[in-house]
Amino acid sequence: MNKKTIVRTLEKIALYMELLGENPFKVSAFRKAANVLELDPRSLSEMDDILKLKGIGKGTGAVITDLLEKGQSDLLLELEETVPKGLIPLLKVPGLGGKRIAKLHEALGIDSLDSLQAACEEGKVRGVPGFGKKTEENILAMLESLSSQDGKVPIWQVEQVVAFVEQQLENMEGVQRFSVAGSFRRTEEESSDVDFIVVTTEPAQVREQLLKALPIANTIAAGDSKLSVTLDLEEQIDADFRFVRDEQFASALHHFTGSKDHNVRMRQLAKSKGLKISEYGVENEEGEVTTFESEEAFFAYFDLPLIPPSLRKDGREIDRAGEIKELVTLDDIRSDLHMHTTWSDGAYSIREMVEACRLKGYSHLVITDHTQYLKVANGLTPERVRAQIAEIRALNDEYDDIEIFCGTEMDILPDATLDFDDELLSELDFVIASIHSNFNQPQEQIMERLHAAIKHPHVDMIAHPTGRIIGKRDGYDPDVPQLIEWAKEYGKILELNANPYRLDLAVDYLALAQEKGVPIAINTDAHTINQLMYMDTGVNYAQKAWIKKETVVNTWPLEKFIRDIIRK
Ligand SMILES: [Zn+2]
Ligand SMILES: [Zn+2]
Fold first, then answer.
1. How far is the CA of 336 from the centre of ligand 1 (A)?
2. Helical pair 350-359 and 382-398, crossing angle rounded to 10 deg
3. Which CATH architecture has domain 3-149?
4. Which ligand lies nearest the alpha carbon of 504?
């Protein structure tokens, strides 16, 4: 049992009660208890007072006791029996919580995604109190995008799952080493499951520990070479664990990273040399199996350089292996040009962000807080920008190993004007322009805004150029090829926003930008110190588009950055 499972169980009980139209006070008691546990910084083993915590009452305490003693909650089992099965999938429709689903169920007898869709199409939903025509349209649109997702989980959600599992494996007895494999290791935008390769000589021991440590909805297979489960985290997702011996690790990792087509091409290549690739190693005609120290050694055996996981796609990467040495790698990155601090909606001070960038070995960085139009993000007024510039210049004097530039992430307003005047912009070293509002404008108007920004002499870069959130929203539908043309014409940078929520620009556009000679900046847009690590995701994603080191602005040395961007 772990805390996450207890929290999830309490939340689930609240949700199911809501679906059944239970008393709101009862429902909120369960939510509150879940929240109390979630906010407590201690892990379950460090809590001896769990039933006495403020916010845990009689009902919620009974559930926790059940979970601790029996590993399951009788109340939840009972609710699962009672709630009509078809209502559960409705919870996946964004904006439809338990309460609203209960209303629809009561008023229209809606009990499945199909009956919800039919009711929307017949215009019945708008007649239910609290729902309007607009809501009905939104629900229909959501239903459509749900059916196109087909059980795939977006990368930012998979990342949370992977981080959680890795944390468990980190200190697990009997685990020698491990790695995530599969589509997540290839930096795919969506995954249908997650794969882990675990090196151990004690698979049974590791398997039992995993079964205890992970929140599991159901166990599909549990053997000595493999454990398959459905994890019950934020989103349900299948996870496979392969238990291998140390000498098999590299081959298993390659095999289970895929892609399928990449593996097919590698097997053909092997066959042409009289060899056979399996998940255990490479077998020759005499049946002798060669194993490898690393994936690099495995590829070298076939006279290939290490093909990075993100490139393993349709097999053609094997023909282009000669180009790999020119591609951007994490080691090439010297700076991050987009991050936020407590001055706007970031969680850390300028100094803390600078120290974190120093630890990464960067030679320079730009502080780019939001501007006044973005009130929800505590955007800076011109006065506050000038105060921030003074603070940054003073701080910069304290460091001789890292250069801190004064920047801004300035809003492009709905009427195609900019949030700051030219005089203020000229005082800044680096100006990012972004759209954060009125996404539903027609393309023509969106392009007018982007044009106004990109041609402005003080603007250096357009951030997250399409505004998409993977698996959630498409963004504001700009004409990206046109934007790329403008970037070329005006000599401006386009961003690859490395936050896994965004990965914006997407692969095909990145490739087009590079082809047209437009410089790209890979930026984390970090709002916390931890998010600076997204540089890794960004670089891996850029490799999918075969982006070269020279294309990427933040691989440039400080002197070149000053000469070509800051002083331009
Ligand atoms: Zn932004
Ligand atoms: Zn930002």
1. 14
2. 40
3. Orthogonal Bundle (1.10)
4. 1
